[in-house]
């Protein structure tokens, strides 16, 4: 604990929160940071430490609370105070001209000003503030009712949790657009590609998927942004123009797009649209058009709205840029987990400012659905103006020489068995000795959550593979000091010795870590623990039938089939045999767990714990043979309720699931040792 009294801690915590909020605003809203990342991180670490020592000083609007507990597995419905309408679209300048003429006609003789805004390619949300504090955020939904995504919205650093305003309105509701920058979109898709996950088609889909994550920690890693563009409801305050509303929002600390312009004529509105249609590629985020609004709020009220859209606003949509080119070939690449991905090799074509020569075709089903053939003339575009994609073939240009694509039945890299599981769109090579998978597979095997072999990072693995000192994970345990020095001479003696010591120490890792380290498709760290507890050995797991696996609550049919496929591969069995001969831990140690009252029991944690951290409680449960779940169901054995427990506690009582206080849990866990 820090050597500081309560009063001093409170004062420092309040100052740290103000400072961190200031830097968040400078970095995420103004794009003008005043401190380095490391300085900012140090401020956050200091605040976390103080709040850990003085938990009663933690408040909902603290910057540390942006990523909170995992929400329930179903989003609660939220009714908007005023409807969130959609916008009518103008797909050409003629459509836009007709809208502007209609507005001029209905407001005949009046001076009309318009506000032009970039149409962010994201997801519209509604935010409710009470007494200046952010209390609830929701999706648009059907316009009347959306889904509560408050926990995920709190992860957006530019969104203030407490407003900088003295005479704060009691309640008000604002509207905004959540989006993903181009850089973050590319980073996320790069990470997903490396993990053999399907790619997001565009930043809008990525932003929408991020906001509907069950775990806010996942949303936080996506680095979403937001711009506010409208006021839905407010008490005790009135405005004359839409521009006044935007100034109010900007003044109290909300991020408002700096590109918004007020124009006084139809000609100026046209020019704004055409200028940004040309300049859109220069922006750090995606836009798909321009929103034009009548500025005067009284004029807006008189123009009114249809059942779906306001009659005082319209969205001018930019035309998508497309080109035609030739599919010269369709090649198949093999990723880290064995996923076979078909890619079109194109006659190079310039599209949206860059030269395109390759385009992903995703999977076999997608090729068949679009009927794309080798030799086809095809229409290509950039999905979300970022990822090159084949839209469709130009069938009228076929001459009969085109060839149908057939997914290979064996791995194009190693010749191993290719399998496509029921319900999946991706075919995979299931041979973990496949050269295309070996590098990342060995890195995963030695990672901290798996066998935790210190020093076996990507650069070391690359060196060992290139020198042919190893060929698969089992070779690690047969490495000799002389072999390393001979084949990888740039290795220092100390580094080589440390690596061999770390490899030797990893032989004693528990069975669950070994199962996870093997890289079986769909088997994560938690599933590996379940399988280790159930089958007690690698031999027992390898001999398990499909029905035995599928009947386990946390396994199911998809993982069951993946485990069966893994152990049916001869090369995988060979590697496991070598690991066994090398002395790795192949059986579970159950002595302590068999005597524990927690053995096999399912726990759900809810509310704020005061004596233990959430992580400490989870580790204690796992150490005694229990398992931790995020949702309450009839299969839950105990709910541990801390302070301010909410919906999960209520559900536990409805289902008559036993509820333990934190003290009761600590006492029971001590008795179970």
Structure description:
The chain has 673 residues and is α+β, with helices and mostly antiparallel strands. The protein has 5 domains: 6-65, Helix Hairpins; 89-317, D-amino Acid Aminotransferase, Chain A, domain 1 (2-Layer Sandwich), CATH 3.30.470.30; 323-397, Beta Barrel (OB fold (Dihydrolipoamide Acetyltransferase, E2P)), CATH 2.40.50.140; 430-589, DNA polymerase, domain 1; 596-671, BRCT domain (Rossmann fold). Helices cover 37% and strands 19% of the residues. It has a 5-stranded mixed beta sheet. A 5-stranded antiparallel beta sheet has the order 14-13-12-15-16, with no helix packed on it. Strand 4 and strand 5 form a beta hairpin. It is globular, with a radius of gyration of 29 Å. The two termini are 28 Å apart. The model is unreliable at 68-73 and 591-595 (pLDDT under 50).
């Amino acid at each position: 604990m820090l050597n500081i009294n309560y009063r001093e801690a409170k004062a420092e915590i309040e100052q740290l929160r103000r400072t961190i909020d200031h830097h968040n605003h400078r970095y995420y809203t103004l794009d003008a940071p005043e401190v380095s990342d490391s300085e900012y991180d140090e401020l956050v670490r200091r605040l976390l430490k103080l709040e850990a020592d003085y938990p009663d000083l933690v408040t909902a609007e603290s910057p540390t609370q942006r990523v909170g507990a995992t929400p329930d597995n179903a989003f609660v419905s939220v009714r908007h105070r005023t409807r969130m309408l959609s916008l009518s679209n103008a797909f050409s300048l003629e459509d836009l001209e007709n809208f502007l003429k209609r507005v001029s006609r209905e407001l005949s003789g009046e001076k009309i000003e318009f506000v032009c805004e970039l149409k962010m390619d994201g997801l519209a949300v509604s935010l409710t503030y009470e007494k200046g504090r952010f209390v609830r955020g929701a999706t648009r939904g059907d316009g009347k009712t959306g889904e509560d995504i408050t926990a995920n919205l709190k992860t957006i650093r530019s969104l203030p949790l407490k407003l900088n305003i003295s005479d704060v309105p009691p309640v008000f509701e604002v509207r905004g657009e959540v989006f993903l920058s181009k850089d973050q979109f590319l980073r996320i898709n790069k990470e997903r590609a490396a993990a053999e996950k399907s790619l997001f088609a565009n930043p809008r889909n990525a932003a929408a998927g991020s906001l509907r994550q069950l775990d806010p920690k996942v949303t936080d890693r996506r680095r979403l942004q937001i711009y506010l563009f409208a006021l839905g409801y407010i008490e005790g305050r009135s405005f004359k123009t839409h521009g006044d509303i935007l100034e109010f929002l900007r003044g109290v600390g909300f991020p408002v797009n700096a590109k918004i312009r007020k124009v006084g004529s139809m000609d100026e509105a046209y020019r704004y649209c055409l200028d940004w249609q040309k300049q859109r590629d220069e922006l750090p985020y995606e836009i798909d058009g321009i929103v034009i609004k009548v500025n005067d709020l009284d004029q807006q009220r008189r123009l009114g709205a249809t059942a779906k859209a306001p009659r005082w606003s319209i969205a001018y949509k930019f035309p998508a840029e497309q080109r035609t080119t030739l599919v010269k070939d369709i090649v198949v690449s093999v990723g880290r987990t064995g996923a076979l991905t078909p890619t079109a090799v194109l006659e190079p074509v310039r599209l949206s400012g860059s030269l395109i020569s390759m385009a992903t075709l995703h999977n076999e089903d997608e090729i068949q659905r679009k009927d794309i053939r080798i030799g086809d003339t095809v229409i290509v575009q950039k999905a979300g103006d970022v990822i090159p994609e084949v839209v469709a073939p130009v069938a009228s240009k076929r001459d009969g020489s085109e060839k149908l694509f057939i997914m290979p039945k064996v791995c194009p890299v190693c010749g191993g068995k290719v399998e496509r599981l029921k319900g999946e769109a991706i075919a995979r090579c299931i041979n973990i000795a496949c050269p295309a998978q070996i590098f990342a597979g060995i890195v995963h095997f030695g990672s901290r959550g798996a066998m935790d072999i210190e020093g076996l990072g990507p650069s070391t693995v690359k060196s060992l593979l290139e020198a042919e000192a190893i060929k698969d994970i089992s070779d690690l345990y047969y490495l000799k000091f002389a072999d390393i020095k001979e084949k990888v001479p740039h290795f220092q003696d100390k580094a080589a010795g440390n690596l061999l010591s770390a490899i030797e120490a990893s032989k004693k890792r528990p069975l669950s870590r070994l199962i996870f380290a093997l890289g079986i498709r769909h088997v994560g760290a938690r599933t590996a623990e379940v399988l280790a507890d159930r089958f007690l050995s690698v031999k027992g797991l390898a001999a398990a039938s499909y029905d035995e696996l599928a009947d386990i609550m946390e396994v199911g049919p998809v993982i069951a089939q993946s485990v069966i496929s893994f152990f049916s591969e001869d090369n995988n069995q060979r590697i496991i045999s070598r690991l066994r001969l090398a002395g790795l831990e192949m059986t579970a140690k159950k002595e302590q767990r068999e005597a524990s009252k927690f053995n096999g029991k399912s726990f759900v944690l809810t509310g704020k714990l005061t004596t233990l951290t959430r992580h400490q409680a989870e580790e204690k449960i796992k150490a005694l043979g229990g398992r931790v779940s995020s949702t309450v169901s009839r299969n839950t054995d105990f709910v541990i309720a801390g302070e301010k427990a909410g919906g999960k506690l209520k559900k536990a009582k409805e289902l008559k699931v036993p509820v333990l206080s934190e003290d009761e849990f600590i006492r029971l866990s001590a008795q179970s040792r």
